[in-house]
Specification:
- The structure holds two protein chains of two kinds.
- Chain A is built from ten helices and three strands.
- Chain A is mainly α.
- Chain A has a single domain, classed as Transmembrane di-heme cytochromes, Chain C (Fumarate Reductase Cytochrome B subunit).
- The termini of chain A are close together.
- Chain B is α+β, with helices and mostly antiparallel strands.
- Chain B has one domain: 2-Layer Sandwich (Alpha-Beta Plaits).
- Chain B has a four-stranded mixed sheet.
- Chain B is elongated, with a radius of gyration of 31 Å.
- The chains are: A mainly alpha, B alpha+beta.
- Chains A and B meet through helix 1, helix 2, helix 3, helix 6 and helix 7 of A and helix 3, helix 7 and strand 11 of B.
Chain lengths: 235, 297
């Protein structure tokens, strides 16, 4: 039996937080469509009413999950922000410049090494986080503004616009996130990218070197998060 | 069917509130029965605003008449204006709100999903909802003036109109109501009520409640130039098509990317952390050497 090295990229807490958040997000998108697309609600008003109730309950899960996770691991929050709000290197800039050519010609475009979070990933994930925050705040105002505080019609109309606007952005970045993160895009498939968040959180050495070269080499040199596994011999 | 309208002549209204009572009675809208359940606000206007069980109120306003004695005591009518360009109908996500054959804005409560977008869109702040204190919102259902379509369908006038003892309310063909209103305003002008005017004729592309305002509009809880808020139009006319377009564009773009990625293959790599070499596992070839002394990572 040969051995293969894996790097533990995401902790159990990170994966649980991400996965609960994903399920909540998908449910919110589906239930939100019943308000966003009139014919849908008109066709099945009972379902639409149920969806609206669940939209509020699941909205709480959507908001509370990352808060609980942050409280449970303040150090993780610090590391998270350090990864995302970091100075851009020349390789980061090169990555962004080459991103579209890479997506269209992945067999011919060579991407530069990256740190733990790719520059494009920092931008895309940042947009997802911004959308999540904007939708959470506007959603809470839309909800409590008609049930507890009775805010003015103007405030509700503006919040609704914000909710719709960030829904649009969220849809675009979520689809792209799933396309890459779930390995639908073939160059992102070999390393079982989906397992990073929905599996054991590990990535094999080869794919870690391909996607996040700087980070992978540093991890291997430090050896702290390396998992060695026996794998069948290649024929 | 010709368009119908309710006419409210504030110069004939005596503020008796019989219309409020008739509305509640016909539409089975209870009022609180507990003693002092309505907070005293120093006005005869009671309740002070529309509510989850109140579709119509008469407003009371005392304005300065510029004389030593007396006031301009204005009685207004606050209820649905039944707009032609109705923001509530435009914004309703479930098709609950719609125009009936007479042009009145009515609704199918069975289709209401309780989002209350209609309230936030209405320039007159009219729609109210039963169960709006339900924090989960499952029992929230719209409640606003419908123009009594059940009565009108049987040749009767809306309940508020039928009961109006001083003849301040009328109901009929919209053009006829406008003609009566304009005639009345002309008479009021002759009598010295300079600010008297017709309201609802052109507002929101024509309302189906026509007002004769005896005094200035500022005494009637009515907006001077009611308009659908920009954000309402932006949401329904811009954001939704834009989201659909964005969705299709992203899917199409990613489909192209998907096709371009088919058949992609890369060799397995490993990293020799002692020599700082990235090695192709299959060929044993050093793909890249990391020159640590030169500061490479």
């Amino acid at each position: 039996m040969a051995t293969e090295r894996f790097i533990q990229r995401h902790s159990l807490q990170t994966r649980i937080t991400h996965d609960v958040f994903v399920i909540a997000c998908i449910w919110l998108m589906i239930s939100g469509l019943f308000v966003f697309i009139p014919p849908l609600a008109a066709a099945v008003p009972e379902v639409a009413r149920f969806m609206r109730i669940t939209h509020r309950i699941v909205g709480c899960v959507f908001i509370i999950t990352p808060i609980i996770s942050a409280v449970a691991s303040p150090g993780g929050v610090k590391r998270f922000f350090a990864k995302y709000f970091t100075k851009w290197t020349p390789e980061d800039v090169e990555f962004v410049k080459k991103f579209v050519p890479y997506m269209l010609m992945p067999k011919k475009t060579h991407m530069p090494d990256q740190d733990e979070v790719k520059s494009g990933q920092r931008f895309a994930d940042g947009m997802l986080m911004l959308c999540a925050v904007a939708m959470a705040i506007s959603g809470v105002i839309l909800w409590l503004g008609i049930s507890v505080f009775h805010v003015s019609a103007g405030v509700l109309a503006v919040q609704r616009f914000i909710h719709d606007l960030f829904f649009l952005i969220l849809v675009i970045f979520t689809i792209a996130h799933i396309f890459l993160g779930a390995g639908i895009f073939e160059p992102y498939r070999p390393g079982h990218m989906i397992g990073l968040m929905f599996g054991n959180g590990q990535i094999d050495e080869s794919d870690a070197l391909y996607h996040w070269g700087f980070w992978a080499r540093k991890e291997i040199e430090e050896g702290k998060n390396i998992v060695v596994k026996e794998v069948p011999d290649k024929k | 069917m010709t368009e119908q309208a309710i006419l409210f002549d504030s110069s004939r209204c005596s503020g008796c509130k019989a219309c409020q009572v008739a509305c509640k009675t016909w539409n089975s809208l209870p009022s609180p029965l507990e003693k002092n359940s309505q907070e005293w606000n120093g006005s005869l206007q009671c309740p002070p605003d529309l509510g989850s069980n109140t579709r119509l109120i008469i407003t009371f306003n005392e304005g300065d008449n510029g004389k030593k004695y007396g006031v301009n005591w204005a009685f207004g009518r606050r209820s649905c204006m039944h707009c032609t360009n109705a923001a509530c109908v435009n914004v309703c996500p479930s098709g609950c709100l719609y125009h009936d054959e007479y042009g009145m804005v009515t609704y199918d409560a069975e289709k209401c999903i309780g989002c209350q977008y209609c309230r936030s869109a209405c320039p007159f702040d009219v729609p109210r909802h039963k169960g709006s204190d339900d924090i989960l919102g499952g029992s929230v259902v719209i409640n606003k003036c419908t123009g009594c379509p059940d009565r009108v369908a049987h040749g009767r006038k809306p309940a508020c109109v039928t009961t109006c003892q001083p003849g301040a309310l009328d109901f009929g063909d919209r053009d006829d109501m406008i003609a009566i209103a304009e005639e009345r305003v002309a008479l009021l002008h002759k009598k010295g009520f300079d600010k008297a005017r017709v309201y609802g004729k052109d507002e929101m592309d024509g309302c189906h409640v026509i007002y004769v305002l005896k005094y200035g509009i500022e005494q009637y809880e009515l907006p001077e130039n009611p308009k659908i808020m920009g954000s309402v139009n932006a949401s329904s006319k811009v954001m939704k098509p834009l989201t659909a377009l964005g969705f299709v564009a992203v899917i199409a773009g990613l489909a192209v990317c998907y096709i371009s990625g088919i058949g992609y293959h890369r060799d397995t790599m490993r990293y020799d952390e002692k020599k700082h070499d990235v090695i192709d596992v299959d060929t044993g070839e050093v793909i890249k050497h990391i020159d640590k002394e030169a500061g490479e990572r």
